[in-house]
Amino acid sequence: MTTRRDLLKLGALAPMLPSLAFARDARPVGKASKSLDILILGGTGFTGPFQVNYALARGHKVTLFNRGKRPSPEWPGHVEQLFGDRNTGDLDALKGRRWDVCIDNPTTLPFWVRDAGKVLAGKVAHYLFISTISVYADGSKRGIDEGDALAVYQGKDAMGETQASLRADLERLYGPLKALSEAEARRQFGERVTIVRPGFIVGPRDETDRFTYWPHRVAQGGQMLVPGDGADPVQFIDGRDLGEWMIRLAEADTPGTFNALGPAKPTTMDAVLRACEKATGAKPTYTHVAPELLEARQADLPIWVSRKGSLAGYGAVSNTRALRAGLTFRPLETTITDLLGWFRSQPAERRAKLPAGLTREQESDLLKAWRARSA
Fold first, then answer.
1. How many angstroms separate the CA atoms of 66 and 46, rounded?
2. Contact call for residues 226 and 285 (beta carbons, < 8 A)
């Protein structure tokens, strides 16, 4: 089952492959009414390339700032690249410059926002920050909205936390540090701040395979374990929908805080599996297994959360405010088809072992245990 640690890493970064072959859309994109100079902090991870592609298609100018550690995709237009390191405070490349918009993708540490503010405050008109629904204090509440209480930092010095200390205590620190990063963004950039809180980000270029596990497993067919009774709500967002909406928020100069999750209408675990069937043409035989057994066996079933327990609310977070602000979603079948196309284009060794989900042996053992318990 999805663990607390998984939920805390909703926006976790992973090494990305440069190919965007299965991530671009054939749909025409119209030009924006005004061209913006956009600075993207990061930009070569998961959602960043989607922001860049959409921004270029809309007629904007794009500058990236990062360490240059990841290969940049082939952009369909000119992109300026600046180099530095926020861990060491090396932001010299940003000094003396102005942009209309800054999109901050990778930040998990408050001092990154503080230092960016020292250089960019007064030099950008609008700052957009990608946060996470893990900032909420109570994950059990259904219908969590943007006004609910946030997780409280319990450490000694939030500005002294580093990537190393975060990794060492991810469960305790991730949500509170993201919440403090939000607060620091408002302190540094004032009213022209947009906070976007996504849940699970899925689709092409997702190296975590948390969502990929499900269509990949459905495509294999046979007897398949499904967590719970199939009616548990699930939420996620295609990285392209998230990235493109961020650009539209910048174009509209929209401040505020938004939960960024889909789909537009509630869906369930069984509904996701039916969409996987449509996309793959496969027809597995499903066996629904009670959450109690899965929890006792510490089964890794990503994306899904039970309707009961401390994390029950993470399948039913309110996205009303984001929908009103123009967030839209591709059809789920499109996300699944494009995701599988991207996944199947990866090297065989990459596809051989998914980092999320059950192995077939683990699944078989759990099904045997469930049948024995039921008998």
1. 14
2. no
Ordered DSSP codes for 261-318: -EEEEEEEHHHHHHHHHHHH---PEEEEE-HHHHHHTT----S---SSSTTGGGGS--
The CA distance from 276 to 214, in Å, is 7
Q: What is the pLDDT of residues 85-119, one digit of tens each?
A: 999 999 999 999 999 999 999 999 999 999 999 99
Q: Are strands 233-238 and 262-268 parallel, antiparallel or unpaired?
A: antiparallel
Rg, Å, the chain Cα set? 21
**Two tokens, residue 323:** 């929908």
Whether residue 280 contacts residue 99, with contact meaning beta carbons closer than 8 Å, is answered with no
Per-residue pLDDT averaged across 262-290, rounded? 96
Report whether the peptide linkage leading into residue 263 is cis, meaning its omega lies within 30 degrees of zero: yes
Question: In angstroms, rounded to a whole number, what is the distance separating the alpha carbons of residues 65 and 79?
Answer: 11
pTM of the complete model: 0.93
At 311, the amino acid letter reads L
CA 321 to chain centre: 18
CA 247 distance to own-chain centroid: 16
Q: 58-87, pLDDT tens digit by residue? A: 999 999 999 999 888 889 899 999 999 999
CA separation (Å) from 206 to 65, 213, 266?
Answer: 21, 11, 23
**pLDDT digit string (tens) for 212-265?**
999 999 999 999 999 999 999 999 999 999 999 999 999 999 999 999 999 999
The structure tokens listed for 177 are 């540090």
Count the neighbouring beta carbons within 10 Å of the beta carbon of residue 223. 11
CA distance 38 to 43: 11
Q: In whole angstroms, what separates CA 298 from the centre of its chain? A: 23
Tell me the per-residue pLDDT of 136-154, one tens digit each, with 9 for 90 and over: 999 999 999 999 999 999 9
What is d(CA 346, CA 367) in angstroms, rounded to the nearest whole number? 30
Burial of 321 (0-12, 13-18, 19+ CB in 10 A): middle
> For the chain, give me the number of helices (H) and strands (E)?
13, 12
